[in-house]
Amino acid sequence: MITRTIGAFGLALSVAHGAVAAQNVPDAAALAANPEIKAALDAAKADVTITEDQIRFCEIAAPSFKEGRRAGALKLAFEQIGLSDVRTDKAGNVLGEWAGVAARPHVVVAAHLDTVFPEGTSVRVRRSGSVLTGPAIGDNCRGLATLVAIGRALKRAAVKTPGSVTFVADVGEEGLGNLRGVKAVFDGSSGRPIDRFLAIDGAGLFVANVEVGSHRYRVAFSGPGGHSYANFGTPNPVQAMGRAIARIAQIHVPASPRTTFSVGRVNGGTAVNAIPTDCWMEVDLRSSSTTALATLDGDFRKAIDDAIAEENARTSSSRGVITVRLERVGDRLAGHTPDTAPIVRTALSAAQALGLTVPLTESSTDSSVAMARGTPSIAIGAGGTGSGQHTPSETFDTTDAWRGLQFAILLVVALAR
């Protein structure tokens, strides 16, 4: 939680030799009292369209790599709220521009389009009072709806910002998407240098200034296969994978820095009465510490090697042995924007101006790419309260969720100064 008082500071902005000077922390309370900005904040409290957008976006399936239909809905929404130069880049991201008095500072505010759920998952949203239930209703349908609502509020209140803002609904944040969307934004589709980056991801009120690193692997086991009875004793890839999973489950990880692992998907085999020729699993390794993640990676690889050796040693078959292929299919760098960085202090100042208690925390979001590129960046929640993230029964309670929208609006305006 926030345990220190953040003072108010004057704003100083200068541009020299094409670069933006270091951001000082704006007086968020003074900004909130500005008539146009106050009108935008008041509109946020009364905004009911945000919830309807949240449901509408969520009922368009968007698995990673197949976000096109949902992207189309966001493109139309960007156009309807009056953003300029609305476009879709080669990666499939939807971008729209909020022009400031000057081109810089250039802020990018992003929310990801994709979900962890495969094609065929029911995406119907159920509503009971203030509670919405459905896959990805909070992560990240609320983020997308908030992205649109920020632009709508700025437009209706005719807010003027010294710098410019690019709104991005990006692809490929989840799973094997491997942050491909926001990487494309930083690789040029934003059109110009990015001075500050803000990700809106998930429910709740928080400022995430620590990004969790991850290694994601697809591990493929192969063997000679055969008839389950006639060729009994032949090394079995599924059994080797089972041994590996059991060994992974026994890996000791530190509680601090928080370090985790998960075997997320498995598949393989052809019939109940056949020794498989192949199978595979996908594994997620995470830590907020680069060192701890490297240690976990080594323990994971040893578990695989030991499991294969054990399965091969179990038999004396002359038909062949188990082999394995490890492919790293995802890689996120651990990162940290210091608590004292202007972008963090600006976020805390904005929260304080709105009477909010907002903790600093860690996350795994698009902000990872910005941190890796050296761009000041944080992630925030979209307000409300949620549960069941990454399950089909995820919930989002809209009670007082407007506070999250107010926080996002004031923060975007402050960052664009």
Features:
four-stranded antiparallel beta sheet, alpha+beta, nine-stranded mixed beta sheet, elongated, 417 residues, 21 strands, Alpha-Beta Plaits, Aminopeptidase, disordered N terminus
What Rg do the Cα atoms give?
24 Å
How helix-rich are the residues, as a percent range? Answer: 25-40%
Q: Given the structure, what is the number of helices?
A: 11
| CATH class placement of the largest domain | Alpha Beta
Shape: elongated
Largest sheet: 9 strands, mixed
Overall strand count: 21
CATH architecture of the largest domain: 3-Layer(aba) Sandwich
CATH topology of the largest domain: Aminopeptidase
Low-confidence stretches: 1-21
Total count of domains:
2
This entry's quaternary arrangement is single chain
Distance between the ends: 26 Å
Give me the secondary-structure category: alpha+beta
The CATH homologous superfamily of the largest domain is termed Zn peptidases
Strand content: 15-25%
Name the average pLDDT: 93
Give the arrangement of secondary structure elements.
Elements: E1 15-16, E2 19-20, H1 28-33, H2 35-46, H3 49-58, H4 68-80, E3 84-88, E4 94-98, E5 106-112, E6 126-128, E7 131-133, H5 137-156, E8 164-170, H6 180-189, E9 196-200, E10 207-211, E11 213-222, E12 226-227, H7 237-249, E13 259-268, E14 274-275, E15 278-287, H8 290-313, E16 323-332, E17 335-336, H9 342-353, E18 360-363, H10 367-372, E19 377-380, E20 385-387, E21 395-397, H11 402-415
Parallel strand pairs: 5-8, 5-9, 9-19, 10-18
Antiparallel strand pairs: 1-2, 3-4, 4-8, 6-7, 7-21, 10-17, 10-19, 11-15, 11-16, 12-14, 13-15, 20-21
